[in-house]
Write a structure and sequence with these properties.
Number of strands: 14
Order of helices and strands: HEHEEEEEHEHEHEHEEEEEHH
Helix content: 25-40%
Radius of gyration: 25 Å
Strand content: 15-25%
């Protein structure tokens, strides 16, 4: 809100905004930003022309990508566990506008936007990072600063003025920059436009022992500078930090599934024990009861391990 509020009514560039939002329902972000902004703010339809002096907000569950001078809504695989994600927007804006592209990374968790800014810099564009000291969540700005040298590190309130002073504009839509901003929530090799790949999958990188948390496929690793990226053959993309978080979530889900299966098994064995006692099969009943108790003990052990891990992670996050 502070960034769009600072844009003057004569701001000559198009701005694309990507925020990690729930994939279901309707995002209220366009209406919220419109109240603070003197420019038109909208959630674009697929094929919407990219017009100067407009702010376009990525809708839920669609990557907002740039193709020629149009905006496309892509159902391509999630990146870093999100759709919309900022990296496809930055990557395709750079592919379409090259050196006229401006990328901005704002406050946010983890490292989204770093690869997108690297793609913009590789295309000769401009990279701006919010001053981490000002950011409520500095992880994204810090990640960007750790992997590339931005053109400016600024407080939000100074960004619009800096852009107007440093980014030329000749008044034609075709040559104007597409400025992309990431709020909370690339891929240099594979510009994503309308969900199509520019290079064969063999160019992705080296295969690893890791599997994709989203689809179970093999993950291929490559390095862009000192940035590690993992991608499956379907197209799900993860930074190493996002992959770690996705693995942790998958592991917890698997452990809870094990708890449920063990507790279901104990309930079934207890029922069989009751039937055996009713038929006066004492030894069978005792065997069923013993195995039911073992299942309950195993389920309790896993449940306690999950709860301990959750507490430990909470303590780390607080520290």
């Amino acid at each position: 809100m502070e960034l769009v509020r600072s844009l003057p009514p004569t701001f000559p560039h198009a701005m694309l905004v990507v925020l990690h939002v729930s994939p279901t329902g309707t995002s209220m972000l366009p209406a919220i930003l419109a109240r603070a902004c003197s420019l038109p703010v909208l959630s674009p339809a697929d094929g919407e022309p990219l017009r100067d002096g407009h702010v376009y907000v990525a809708p839920p569950d669609s990557h907002l990508v740039v193709e020629d001078s149009e905006l496309r809504l892509s159902q391509a695989p999630r990146e870093n566990g999100h759709r919309p994600a900022i990296d496809p927007t930055m990557r395709t804006a750079s592919a379409a506008y090259g050196a006229d592209t401006v990328g901005i990374v704002l406050s946010g968790a983890r490292d989204d936007g770093t690869a997108g800014l690297m793609a913009i810099k590789a295309g000769g564009g401009t990279a701006i990072v919010q001053n981490p000291d000002e950011a409520l969540y500095p992880a994204m700005p810090l990640s960007a600063l750790a992997h590339l040298t931005p053109d400016a590190v600024l407080p939000i309130g100074a960004m619009a003025k800096w852009i107007l002073q440093h980014v030329p504009h000749d008044g034609t839509t075709e040559d104007s920059p597409a400025m992309t901003a990431e709020g909370n929530p690339g891929d240099l090799l594979r510009p994503l436009a309308g969900g199509q790949d520019a290079l064969p999958r063999s160019a992705i990188g080296e295969g690893t022992r890791f599997t994709c948390p989203d689809c179970g496929g093999v993950l291929f690793e490559r390095h862009e500078g000192n940035l590690e990226r993992f991608e499956c053959s379907v197209g799900h993309v993860f930074s190493i930090e996002s992959l770690s978080n996705a693995q942790a979530e998958s592991l917890e889900n698997a452990l809870w599934a094990a708890v449920r299966a063990l507790e279901d098994r104990a309930a079934m064995l207890t029922r069989l024990a009751g039937r055996a006692r009713g038929d006066d099969h004492r030894r069978s009943a005792e065997s069923f009861e013993r195995r039911a108790a073992e299942a309950v003990d195993r389920a309790r052990t896993i449940r306690e391990a999950i709860e301990r891990t959750s507490v430990d992670q909470g303590m780390v996050a607080e520290s």
